[in-house]
Amino acid sequence: MKTKKVTVMAMCIALAMILSYLESLIPSPGIPGVKLGLANLAVIFALYKLGWKEAVGVSLLRVLLVSLLFGHAASLMYSAAGAVLSLLGMILLRRFDKLSCVFVSVSGGVLHNVGQILMAWVLMGSNVVFYLPVLILSGTVAGVVIGVVAALLVKRTDIGERKQF
Amino acid sequence: MKALFANKKLRADLILIAALLLLAGILFLALNHGRQEGGVVVVRVNGAEVERHSLSLSGTFPLNGGSNILVIQNGQAWLSEANCPDHICVRQGKIHYTGQVITCLPNRLTVTVEGGESDGVDFVVG
Questions:
Q1: Residues pairing with B95 in the sheet
Q2: Which of A34, A50, A87, A135 might form a disulfide with A113, Cβ 3.0–4.6 angstroms?
Q3: Which domain holds residue A70?
């Protein structure tokens, strides 16, 4: 991995952490798991500009660091479950050139929420599926917003283009 | 040609979004189908039932060694206090239909409304 790639990846992790912190300042609507997923901007950026391994690094390091800094003991497990499922889906869908950034982002957002529900199911029992419809809805809406912004970022920045490495 | 591709991408986006909204709607209807006023609230910690209380009796119950305070009044249940940082469980409001859940993720605690009447002995505190 070239130095520049490492630097851009580190910048993405730092950005993801700051975005997570900013998001924690927004009051929750009162449904567990409903959030904008601002940090996914940095993950999608890394996925498109650096590659899938770097995106995995950005996402998992961000989850670990943010949970240690701002989270509670349980938040790491929910975030990690969501992040892993979301990454798998986004990496897979990214391979299809006919699918847009918004498609990848919406899938990632919904899969993140599904991953969290699955973890909550394991930890707390099946009654948490009650939240699934609203979490699919919120993941879709958040995914569209993040996807549109991410598409602009990917298009307008020439940082991290493959030819530079 | 470029515009055509853009349109195809947009179409895929819209199909995905529509499919997800439809899925959410169907799941919502399926989960809320035949919902009715519940009879008992069941408290679970780590997925295991720890206590149940009748919705028809008012009371205040410290749960999980006092980490959350459950209040039952006028056939509705809610969490009035929690020791977690985000207090999302408190903000989830009042529940009374069967299937409705209040969740406290940090304390791995759920409060679910279920049908029927409480068969055990209920005690009222406070």
A1: B77
A2: A135
A3: 3-164
